[in-house]
From TrEMBL:
SUPFAM superfamilies named among the record's database cross-references: Metallo-dependent hydrolases (SSF51556)
GO molecular function: 3'-5'-DNA exonuclease activity; metal ion binding
The UniProt record lists the keyword Hydrolase: yes
InterPro entries linked: DNase_TatD-rel_CS, Metal_Hydrolase, TatD-like, TatD-type_Hydrolase
PANTHER family hit by this protein: DEOXYRIBONUCLEASE TATDN1, TATD FAMILY DEOXYRIBONUCLEASE
Domain of life: Eukaryota
Protein name (record): TatD related DNase
Organism: Diversispora epigaea
Alphabetical UniProt keywords: Hydrolase, Metal-binding, Nuclease
Length: 124
């Protein structure tokens, strides 16, 4: 990770990037000005077997926002995720886990990540 950052590159974190304790340690060390978040949907969801899952201490309101209830794809319904599929709305889980392992406020962290996103994709 240090080599990637030393080249001026950014590091994107998703659910698969947070599977193990070692992954969490690396994610903690990524400089905020080089950090991006992603879902990699429809893959790479955060699962109860991942080391990061214990950091997902969200209120019911936030959990409903970032992990809505699911339905089988044959019974698709607006407001529900497709069962077994990671969805873009799950990006908040990645944010809150990163904030937890870094001991920082999620709003402060997402503001910095937003600035990074503008720098990479919308630089003028």
């Amino acid at each position: 990770m240090e080599r990637i950052v030393s080249l001026g590159l950014y590091v994107g974190i998703n659910g698969c990037s947070l599977k193990t304790k070692e992954n969490l340690e690396v994610a903690k060390r990524i400089p905020e000005d080089r950090l991006m978040i992603e879902t990699d949907a429809p893959w790479c969801d955060i699962r109860p077997t991942h080391a990061s899952y214990s950091h997902l201490n969200l209120s019911k309101e936030l959990m409903d926002l970032y992990r809505p209830p699911t339905r089988n794809k044959e019974k698709f319904q607006t407001g529900f995720m497709v069962k077994g599929r990671n969805e873009p709305c799950c990006i908040g889980q990645v944010l809150y886990i990163l904030a937890s392992i870094r001991g920082t406020d999620p709003i402060t962290l997402v503001d910095k990540i937003y600035e990074n996103t503008k720098e990479v994709f919308f630089k003028q």
